[in-house]
Amino acid sequence: MEVMLSVLVGVLVAAAVYLMLARNVLRFLFGLILISNAANLTIFTSGRVTEAAPPLIPEGAEAPVGLVANALPQALVLTAIVIGFGLFAFALVLAFRAYDALGTLDSDEMRVAEPVEDTK
Amino acid sequence: MSWILGLPIIIPFFTAVIAFLTKERPSGAWWSVLGSLLTLIAAAALMVVVLQEGVVAAQMGDWPAPFGITLVADLLSAVMVVITGITGLAVAVYALADIDEAKERLGYHALFQVLIAGVCGAFLTGDLFNLYVWFEVMLISSFGLLVLGGSRAQIDGGIKYVALNLVSTIIFLTGVGLLYGVTGTLNMADLALAVDQSDQKGLLTVIAVMFMFAFGVKAALFPLFFWLPAAYHTPAFSVSAVFAGLLTKVGVYALIRMFTLVFDHDIGFTHTILLWVACFTMVVGVLGAAAQQDFRKILSFHIVSQIGYMILGLALYTPLAIVGAVFYLVHHIVVKANLFLVAGVAQRLCGDTDLRKIGGLYKSAPLLAVLFLIPAFSLAGFPPLSGFWAKYILVKASLDIDAWFIAFIALAVGLLTIYSMTKIWGEAFWKPHPEGVEPELRAIPRAALIAYLVPIAGLATLTIIIGFFPEPFVQFAERAAAQLLDPSDYIAAVLGGGT
What was the ipTM of the complex prediction? Predict the structure, then answer.
């Protein structure tokens, strides 16, 4: 299972890097979604994939009985998904505003903040 | 006394709520000033506690480390929080004059306070995943501040800033995941022990390089700094100043923390990379600045260049070099934020920051000229200002280990820094205004003028104090560096059942 997940992470990262190398900002953002999901899967896999019971403590006991799943990576992934979603929403709106204000989504043509004449 | 650790985070968050509720009223800005003042007082109190009791740690929700989230302050954290408080207060006062009503209505002060909370949180946390969360708090509020107002240049700079910082965030997160997979813990003190005991040193070095990349983007190291000069000259001057002072320094702080506490298992490899990166950062930054013709763009490239000095101190990894890095960090935040504040007043007077279009400020506004000279010469390393001592310690540290070439680069970059500063001086202050305008400070309404000049003068005074009385500051940096190089106090405070 870990091997499969690792391969999946690799495929996701490869696809993401391909998308992020594009000049179009929207493609870059799609790449960003893929790679952030790859990061989340990495955390999940790092916590070891086991066939175990849910990490619930029976009534009256101090600690869970028997083999239980590792809950921490799932909590981390959940946090990362929420944060990543918020940031992505912002980035998407920013890209839309950029298209509105600059008339392009091609990063090579975005030269308002760093005009070409400055480099001469 | 460990409850005091939470205050520099809680106060700005609380202030942000009040500032958001009062954003339509003129009192909103004053709430921000009050909140910043309280943050500074809390930070100073924290500093006193740390000086008296050594490293202080607090476990959130009373979950013992390494299971819960730990807040911890050693001398480095404490001084960073204090300097954040000082910068925050200076910029909050400056914002009274600099931020117009339209930006206030969009929630400038609330975003600013959240940013300060994020910065303080990043300095105080003792948990790696929690550090990630504080980075995100900082990042999202900085996104908002950067594009607030929505001019075309801001949107353009914002895209580059957002894109590259999000990449860094994801690499950071992946590094956190892998590190957890190898060591099974994310508490920094616990990580320090786990990394020492681990037998997978090769894998840990790979993870260390991932962290180096992630924090390197935040700190604007070569070759990862391109987002900084693309974005920092576009927003309001208050925003530029607080970004320039604090944001990249959080990246530097994270590098110093991780590469003294956790990743010290293969110094020959990791710190050699850092050494070369630091040299390239210094040189490329200062050359970039030399090519620019805009007040703020020159200053932005100088941030990059100066970051190189701090990382140089970390990379040399001798006790004296770490002292230099800590001293540089503190001195630089004060000076750099101040230079951006001066740029704001120059823009208000002349209507532009393009050096080709402005001039004559020495004749028409001599007070501003003096207030520019102090941080500018300090940045360039003129004795007896604070930058001289910072550079002196680092150069001496590199000479002590016979790193002649490194010392030469540090000195040569200092010389080029003087070139840039004299360029700003010559163009903006010395030469006559191209259109014959003689903008005087009196042209600014009195209340706004006070709000502009008081923070600038305050930070300049601090620069002079550090410059003329460096002894206590150096001694403090020595103590902070000793704690960094021997983290046993830090680890004991976190894991030893701190209350």
Answer: 0.92
